[in-house]
Amino acid sequence: MRPLFLQVAAVTRINIKSIPQRFWLSLSTVMAIALVVIVLLSFLAMANGFQQTLTSSGSDDIAIILRGGSQAEINSTVSRDQVRLLEEGPGVARGRDGKPLVSAELYLVVDGVKRSTQTKANLPLRGIGTEGAEVRKGIKIVEGRMFNAGANEIVVGKALLREFQGLEMGQVVAFATSRWTVVGVFEANGSVFESEIWADLPVVQSLFNRNNIFQTVRVRLDNPAALARLQRFVDEDPRLKLDVKSEAAYFAEQASQTSDLIQKLGWPLAITMALGALAGALNTMYSSVAARAVEIATLRAIGFGGFPAFIGTLVEALILAAVGGAIGTIATYLVFDGFSASTLGASFTQVVFSFSLRPALFGQAVLLALAVGLGGGLLPAIRAARMPIVAGLSQH
User: Fold this and answer.
1) What is the pLDDT of residue 347?
2) Rounded (10°) CA dihedral 253, 255, 257, 259
3) How far is the C-alpha of 73 from the C-alpha of 84, rounded, in Å?
4) Confidence tier at 348 by pLDDT (50, 70, 90)
5) Nearest-CA neighbor of 56 among 359, 356, 364, 365?
6) What distance in Å separates the CA atoms of residue 364 and residue 71, rounded to the nearest whole number?
7) Does residue 87 contact residue 183 with C-beta atoms inside 8 Å?
8) What are residue 245's DSSP bridge partners?
9) At residue 342, does pLDDT exceed 70?
10) CB 167 within 8 A of CB 217
11) DSSP code of 100?
């Protein structure tokens, strides 16, 4: 009698060689699993790309200050008197002119039109002062110039321009009851700021009737450790009922909310499709066992055990699943990696980002594919292992 591992190898080889006999049935299983992987990976790539865009936007030495209890800029209000108090806070860095690097900003929602669908979407219009660009890192005008103070001029983020129409250089756009001229395009190292439109703060306040009111304050700190001192300063002053956190922490919170939602949509959909693929895999493997009934019975008659038949059938199912997983991952990478899109962020405005795939995501998708293969092959494998010799030979 052959050793067990030789029996397993022989039966497995026979199973694999018989796959072409059920080509179309096997192909349907492979493609079903590939579709499951594509759906799952596309959602995971979307969530990962969105998260990377937001988390890369924050810095540990920049503080963002909102009204107490506000979860997003659009829900916050900060008064001019509070801004003046913050300018005198500890740990606030100063520019070359000696002025504190504090940027009080207004964050509003305006209409835009998506290039791909021609549908309206909410876009963020941010009113900033002279310190707005200096407080941030990596801001660079790549086309045109920065807006002039006191003028109805705007500069547009590079990513926003890619996804939305009507914001090209020299275009005149209407926001609320006013008309604005696009005078520049800026980039910000691929951060979320590239999804924004910037204009002169006093002009935005006047035309949108928001005089003496801001929504957020950004503060450049001497170093990351200065954040704790600024927090204590704010907590100890009853006039400053504000929340202080690092920009990195703020964007991490914003990213987790939306990326978690995307994943909660993607996994149930993928699992639902996986159940359909599982049914297909069961059908394929039961057909495989039925087609090889005589072979299995013959091998049993000459001394092969049931365990090699079990392993051989299971390996066949896992091979089909692995091929489907490989096709799905390659297709998703070629189609979606780097694909540009936009979705609503926590402030109900569009955030432009690129789908991003990483090895850990491929691992999750392949594991799901193999789980489908395992589930689809287990019962047929048990059937193959328990098939009576007489029943198998009688099908000849």
Assistant:
1) 61
2) -150
3) 19
4) low
5) 356
6) 31
7) no
8) 64
9) yes
10) no
11) B
CB atoms within 10 A of CB 262: 19
pLDDT above 90 coverage of the chain, percent: 34
pLDDT tens, residue by residue, 246-297: 988 888 887 776 777 777 777 787 888 888 888 887 887 777 777 666 666 6
- Amino acid identity at 19: I
C-alpha span between 261 and 369 (Å, rounded): 23
Q: HSE of 396 in the Cβ direction (CA atoms, 13 Å)?
A: 10
The answer to whether 186 and 153 are in contact (CB under 8 A) is no
**Token pair recorded at residue 77:** 């209000």
Structure tokens that stand for 160 in this block: 């926003």
Ramachandran region, residue 179 (left: φ > 0; alpha: ψ -120 to 50; beta: rest): beta
Distance CA 47, CA 45 (A): 6
Q: Give the single-character DSSP code of 349.
A: S
For β-strands 140-144 and 178-187, DSSP reports them as antiparallel
pLDDT of residue 2 exceeding 60: no
- Model pLDDT, residue 1: 45
Short-list 97, 96, 95, 107, CA closest to 135? 95
| 122, 159, 221 from 167: Cα distances, Å | 14, 11, 34
- Angle, in degrees to the nearest 10, between helices 247-291 and 23-55: 170
The tokens for 314 are 């299971």
